[in-house]
Write a structure and sequence with these properties.
The chain is α/β, with parallel strands linked by helices. The protein has one domain: Purple Acid Phosphatase, chain A, domain 2 (4-Layer Sandwich). Helices cover about 25% and strands about 25% of the residues. The strands form three sheets. A five-stranded mixed β-sheet has the order 5-4-1-11-12, with no helix packed on it. A five-stranded mixed β-sheet has the order 6-7-8-10-9, with helices on one face. The longest helix is centred in the middle third of the chain and has 19 residues. The protein is globular, with a radius of gyration of 18 Å.
Length: about 270
């Protein structure tokens, strides 16, 4: 029997945001950021996950690894607006995970975050010895496709509309993939992964394809609450990762999820 092999799919770390994952004690250009209670919870669970994971073949960081200058909020919720500082923090966060995997690959996120962050992903890629797979001799691009253990993966950060009824987006992705593959010769993918909306969902097709929307490592942002409202933002939020396993029986997709901690309410006398 062939030994099981694993890939971890990560997304939306948002290193550099007060809502995202950050390393305690990390020194950036303006000093040291004191983690919020939620950031402490994120960091503790991230480290716990890394420690509990099996030995990995690969890790894919699927976009918004850093927060960038975040123009939606005018940079107001950045720990530091400097992409170099954010990249350095992301490197520190990801180093223990890098030691558990044979390879690591990066995917571009949104324009608001790491896609226009002045080459920060190339800095992260070089420091963590990631695969330099993208056009132009870079470490990241918008769409990552590869064949691993006989399964074809198609990974992209952006997810289409459908924030409330996400199952509809999963069905649409299955349908559009089938059309693109049959009509325009897009290579068939056994697993399609997207991220971006900080909410996890997934499902199989009858033909054995799996579409997954990845969870995040950040809390509801100020922008998400403005767009959706606080109740909807918290209802949909999923913190965690996706572990893909291939063995003699086929492919299995596991959601690693961390239920949110209770929020405290300020008491006013």
């Amino acid at each position: 029997m062939t030994k099981a092999a694993h890939i971890l799919l990560l997304a939306d770390l948002h290193c550099g945001s007060v809502f995202g994952t950050w390393v305690p004690g990390f020194q950036h250009s303006d000093g040291e950021h004191k983690l919020t209670g939620f950031q402490q919870w994120l960091y503790q669970n991230f480290n716990s996950m890394v420690g509990a994971l099996p030995k990995l073949d690969g890790v894919v960081c699927n976009g918004d690894t850093i927060d960038g200058k975040n123009p939606y909020s005018g940079g107001r919720y950045c720990i530091t607006p400097e992409p170099a500082d954010q990249a350095a923090a992301a490197i520190e966060l990801l180093k223990p995970l890098r030691k558990k995997t044979k390879w690591m690959r990066l995917v571009d996120g949104t324009d608001c975050h790491d896609d226009t962050a002045g080459g920060a992903l190339d800095v992260i890629g070089a420091e963590l010895k990631c695969d330099k797979w993208a056009p132009g001799n870079h470490y990241s691009a918008q769409v990552l496709s590869f064949d691993w253990r006989g399964k074809v993966f198609n990974i992209q950060h952006h997810t289409g509309n459908g924030l409330l009824y996400i199952s509809g987006e999963i069905s649409k992705k299955h349908m559009m993939a089938s059309i693109a593959e049959s009509d325009n010769n897009l290579p068939r993918a056994d697993l399609i992964a997207t991220a971006h909306i900080h909410s996890a969902s997934g499902g199989w097709s009858g033909g054995g394809r799996y579409v997954v929307v990845q969870p995040c490592w950040a809390g509801p942002t100020n922008h998400a609450i403005k767009v959706m409202g606080v109740q909807r933002a918290y209802a949909l939020l999923t913190v965690g990762a996706v572990l893909v396993t291939v063995d003699d029986l086929g492919m299995a997709v596991k959601l690693i999820r961390y239920p949110l901690p209770p929020l405290s309410v300020e008491k006013i006398e």
